[in-house]
């Protein structure tokens, strides 16, 4: 069965323009095909235009959001740069303080002047970038530099704490040694007799004098030459009223011919503490203090400790 041939659509639209005042009428015939093509084309154009407008609005919204975010990021970045600069300055100041501590540690160790603390600090200075252009061109700090510097400062602080702790122990030990070392004069006055051989004050030739005599008025205060424990306080033969103090490490001091003892056996005394008053008890030719220093039982010249 033969298919029927579709006849072409020959319809037309007539567009008429009727002027006033009896002028001739203008007419325009438009085939239906052209109208259809025009409608399709217009639809396509409107669709494309609508899509373009929607895409434009979408892109415009994205651009607006990105602009807002960019402004916010710039503000945050500007604020972070300021904070970074302040952190760099604070870190640089901290570094300067650490360097001063290093120098102070070294100076203190030289002042201690002992074998166990003579070595200078092993805490090396921390390197730092020239953030302020000192000694070279200006360099902007960055996170990596500051992180490295902070880590170095942490290590330096640890070394500093250890070093100062050792120095503190050394100073405490030295102070303890000084405290128990008879290193001060036990009283005021004139040295009337020194350590060693001397002419006997009673005209009996030469005699060995195991200490020094310091003459002054009766009642002149006598102080402990170092920290220690009183082991004897009372009358002891030719020494008269005598005090004996044990300072440890085999060191003992003796204070004789006192008019009055102010401490008792077993009592702890401090360096510089008044322990007696000067007198002339025992075998004596006048008011004075007989002062002895003994090391492991042997009398030594007290002047070597003063």
UniProtKB/TrEMBL annotation:
Answer yes or no on keyword Transmembrane. yes
SUPFAM superfamilies given in the database record:
Duplicated hybrid motif (SSF51261)
Residues of the M23ase beta-sheet core domain: 209-302
Q: Which UniProt keywords apply?
A: Hydrolase, Membrane, Transmembrane, Transmembrane helix
Q: Which CDD domains match?
A: M23_peptidase
Q: Please state the Enzyme Commission number of this protein.
A: 3.4.24.-
Q: What is this protein called?
A: Murein DD-endopeptidase MepM
Q: Gene name on record?
A: mepM_1
